[in-house]
Specification:
Number of strands: 12
Strand order of the largest sheet: 1-2
Low-confidence stretches: 10-19, 263-269
Structural class: alpha+beta
Largest sheet: 2 strands, antiparallel
Helix content: 25-40%
Number of domains: 1
Number of helices: 4
Shape: elongated
Mean pLDDT: 85
Distance between the termini: 47 Å
Oligomer: single chain
C-alpha cells in the first residue's frame, strides 16, 4: 500500500512538472499585465504631480521620472507579446537591466531604483526617485502617496474616502461616489472661503460643473456647463481619482504622458492591477 502511495505521488509530481511551463507562462503573463497596470497608475500620479506641484517640489526630478516611466513602458508594456528572450533580456538605453525575469523577478527603473520585488504580488511599490507609492499594493484599503512624498489618500480604492492634491488641498471627500463634491486645487475665485468647486454633483449626467475660461491676456473667468458624455462617471470610475483628474485637466488641453500608457484604450479610468 505504501509503495502504491509513493507511486501515486510520483505520478502527480511528474504531471505538475510536465504542465509547469504552460502554467508558468500563463501566470507570468498575468503578472506582467498586473505590473503594467501598476505602471500606468504610477504614470497618472507622476504626471499629475508634475502638472500640480507643491511649493517645494523638484520639477526637474518629476519630469525625469516621467521619462523613466515612459522608457519602461515602451520596453515592456507596449509590445504585443514578450518572447522568451525579451522576458530576461530587456535593457534600458543606458544598459541597466529591467529584470532577470519579467514574469517573477524584481523590476528596476533605468537609474537602478527598485520598482517592486515581484510582479503581481502584494509588495511595496517605489517611484523612480526612491519614494514609496504604496506599502501593500494589492490591498485596496491602505495609503497611497504622491511622488513628492505627500499623502494622496489614507484608503486606496475605498468608497467615500478623502483624496488630496500633491500640495495638500482637497480633491474630494467622496471618492467612488457619483454625485460627490470635487474641488479645484485653488481658493474660490469669488473671494469666498474654501476651495473652488468643480461640481457638487460630479459625474452625474446633466448636472452643472464649473468650467474655467481663459482670455487672451491670461485672465480667468468661469461658466456653468453641463456634465455630459466623457464627464459622466459611475461609482467605480470615481474610485480612480487620478484618472478622473486627468479627464479634468484634459478639458483644458493640458498634455500628460498617461495617454501613452494604455494602448488601444481610450478609457483612462480602471483598476490599476
Amino acid at each position: 500500500m505504501e509503495e502504491i502511495m509513493k507511486l501515486a505521488r510520483l505520478i502527480l509530481l511528474m504531471a505538475i512538472l510536465g504542465a509547469s511551463p504552460a502554467l508558468l507562462a500563463l501566470t507570468g503573463s498575468a503578472n506582467v499585465s498586473s505590473a503594467c497596470a501598476t505602471l500606468e497608475f504610477m504614470a497618472k500620479m507622476v504626471t499629475l504631480n508634475a502638472m500640480l506641484p507643491a511649493d517645494y517640489d523638484d520639477i526637474g526630478e518629476l519630469y525625469a521620472m516621467e521619462e523613466s516611466l515612459a522608457e519602461l513602458n515602451s520596453l515592456v508594456c507596449q509590445p504585443v507579446i514578450l518572447t522568451e528572450f525579451t522576458r530576461g533580456s530587456s535593457t534600458y538605453y543606458n544598459g541597466q537591466l529591467v529584470s532577470i525575469d519579467l514574469y517573477c523577478d524584481p523590476w528596476f527603473f533605468n537609474n537602478g531604483q527598485l520598482f517592486f520585488a515581484a510582479p503581481g504580488e502584494d509588495t511595496v511599490i517605489y517611484y523612480p526617485n526612491g519614494r514609496i507609492m504604496a506599502y501593500s499594493w494589492m490591498h485596496g484599503d491602505q495609503a497611497i502617496f504622491w511622488p513628492n512624498g505627500n499623502l494622496a489618500t489614507d484608503y486606496f480604492r475605498v468608497f467615500d474616502e478623502t483624496w488630496y492634491y500633491p500640495d495638500g488641498n482637497i480633491i474630494t471627500y467622496y471618492a467612488g461616489y457619483s454625485g460627490g463634491r470635487w474641488f479645484y486645487p485653488f481658493q474660490r475665485l469669488d473671494g469666498g472661503i474654501g476651495q473652488q468647486v468643480i461640481s457638487s454633483n460630479w459625474g452625474v449626467h446633466n448636472e452643472d460643473f464649473t468650467f474655467l475660461n481663459f482670455r487672451a491676456n491670461g485672465s480667468l473667468f468661469t461658466t456653468r456647463e453641463r456634465i455630459r458624455r466623457k464627464l459622466v462617471f459611475d461609482d467605480f470610475d470615481l474610485l480612480d481619482v487620478p484618472g478622473v483628474l486627468l479627464v479634468v485637466t484634459r478639458l483644458y488641453q493640458a498634455y500628460d504622458i498617461a495617454k501613452e500608457f494604455a494602448p488601444a484604450d481610450v478609457n483612462i479610468t480602471g483598476a490599476p492591477y
